[in-house]
């Protein structure tokens, strides 16, 4: 593969039929926005890892351009380099020319899923992931054997066997969150009234993985919103928002889920649809764009997306009202890529955390660099994800925090895995990894900060 930077190759004429099908191919104007300056390269995690042009944003845009001009097909290097992209959108933040790499990636990933035949083992592995994660009931059913397995894994012989699992299965196994059966089967109240005078009425997306494995985060979020003067509705019929599928190019099934969620939430008389998961928020804010060519849904999707807010946006807009108890400690905030880069929500979580008296907020070095979680990336690309996870863990250690907070379950699992149990907080034990809502909830209630 030749290097695109500044070469005449970037102005190739159309030499054959486009490799893309007619369903939303990448737009020519968006491809042409890239002036090949390379400012995005230092912030791209895969370019950082391998120093390979085709694993940089600029190189990937070049590949998209070649495929559009009929120079290359979608199979082979095209799929390989697009698959290796984390979809972290650090390049969107870095690009001075406003290149919409997010839109480009959103167009080409479904093209790959529709038109490229994956190897049987790759297909099987991906299908297994998508047959489980977007389904709350299946996740709950998996929680029982999961909890049993985690007990069994404490037996040295079983732990030894687990270490021998092949790459992707080993990655999946090591990312299994501590399973609490009680938590997995718990349900949020469908209505929680505001404490004191009502300031807003919101509906919460409870999520799939979030609700089953991080139910405590949802409980904390409902308590915080109510304490800050919000009536909180949690519609029982909601399901997965489709974010995992959308970010992996499984557009058709993601849009089926999007339409279903819109139909559930649009009936509610609320000011905002609130999410506490970075990946879910970024995809729900995109529904309007994704369904813009669907005559039945375009308007409804745009109206829905306009109401979606990350929980930190809502709290920062309202301003703190509930009294807080102090937290004396160093708190490292990790920007989840789908919150910081994709939604540009960076100031609000920090403002919310700073509302806790005595809390010392510390930023991480290389904060813009993805931790390697990236949806299903750490399962399908375990080696690259492990390198990025180890790098993030080293950056976390360098600021010696008492608590780490981040607003995405994938990041919590990935950073926790790479910090391991050897990194201790000042008061002993592993450093607590929490969602900011858990910390704020503990501060408002005046209870000890949870360990997880
Ligand atoms: S994506 Fe933006 S920063 Fe990167 S090479 Fe193109 S124009 Fe430059
Ligand atoms: S989304 Fe992330 S990994 Fe992909 S090209 Fe952009 S910076 Fe690199």
Automatic annotation (TrEMBL):
Binds 2 [4Fe-4S] clusters. It catalyses: (R)-lactate + A = pyruvate + AH2; glycolate + A = glyoxylate + AH2. It comes from the Bacteria. Its cofactor is [4Fe-4S] cluster. Residues 24-55, 75-99 form the 4Fe-4S ferredoxin-type domain. Component of a complex that catalyzes the oxidation of glycolate to glyoxylate. This is Glycolate oxidase iron-sulfur subunit. It comes from Pseudonocardia xinjiangensis.
């Amino acid at each position: 593969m030749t290097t695109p930077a500044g070469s005449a190759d970037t102005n190739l004429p159309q030499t054959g039929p486009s490799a893309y099908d007619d369903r939303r191919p990448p737009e020519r104007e968006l491809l042409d926005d890239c002036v090949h300056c390379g400012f995005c390269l230092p912030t791209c995690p895969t370019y950082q890892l391998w120093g390979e042009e085709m694993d940089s944003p600029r190189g990937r845009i070049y590949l998209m351009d070649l495929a559009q001009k009929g120079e290359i097909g979608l199979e082979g290097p095209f799929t390989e380099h697009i698959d290796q992209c984390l979809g972290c959108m650090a390049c969107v933040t870095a690009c001075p020319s406003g290149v919409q790499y997010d839109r480009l990636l959103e167009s080409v990933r479904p093209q790959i899923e529709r038109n490229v035949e994956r190897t049987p083992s790759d297909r099987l592995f991906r299908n297994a992931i998508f047959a489980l994660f977007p389904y709350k009931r299946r996740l709950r059913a998996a929680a029982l054997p999961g909890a049993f397995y985690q007990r069994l894994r404490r037996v040295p012989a079983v732990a030894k066997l687990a270490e021998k699992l092949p790459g992707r299965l080993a990655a999946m196994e090591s990312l299994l969150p501590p399973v609490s059966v009680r938590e997995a089967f718990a349900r949020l109240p469908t209505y929680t009234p505001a404490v004191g005078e009502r300031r807003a009425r919101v509906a919460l997306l409870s999520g799939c993985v979030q609700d089953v494995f991080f139910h405590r985060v949802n409980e904390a979020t409902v308590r915080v919103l109510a304490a800050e003067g919000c009536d909180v509705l949690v519609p029982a019929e909601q399901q997965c928002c489709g974010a995992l599928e959308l970010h992996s190019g499984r557009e058709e099934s993601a849009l089926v889920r999007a339409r279903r969620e819109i139909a559930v939430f649009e009936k509610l008389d609320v000011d905002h649809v609130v999410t506490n998961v970075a990946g879910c928020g970024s995809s729900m804010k995109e529904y309007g764009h994704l369904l813009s060519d669907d005559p039945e849904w375009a308007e409804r999707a745009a109206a829905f997306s306009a109401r979606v807010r990350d929980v930190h946006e809502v709290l920062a807009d309202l301003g703190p009202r509930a009294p807080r108890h102090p937290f004396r400690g160093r708190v490292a905030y990790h920007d989840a890529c789908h919150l910081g880069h994709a939604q540009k929500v960076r100031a609000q979580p920090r403002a919310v955390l700073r509302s806790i008296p005595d809390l010392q907020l510390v930023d991480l070095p290389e904060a813009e660099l993805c931790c390697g979680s990236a949806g299903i990336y750490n399962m399908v690309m375990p080696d690259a994800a492990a390198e990025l996870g180890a790098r993030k863990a080293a950056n976390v250690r360098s600021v010696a925090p008492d608590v780490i907070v981040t607003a995405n379950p994938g990041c919590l699992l990935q950073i926790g895995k790479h910090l391991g149990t050897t990194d201790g907080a000042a008061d002993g034990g592993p450093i607590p990894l929490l969602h900011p809502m858990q910390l704020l909830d503990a501060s408002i209630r005046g209870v000890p900060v949870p360990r997880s």
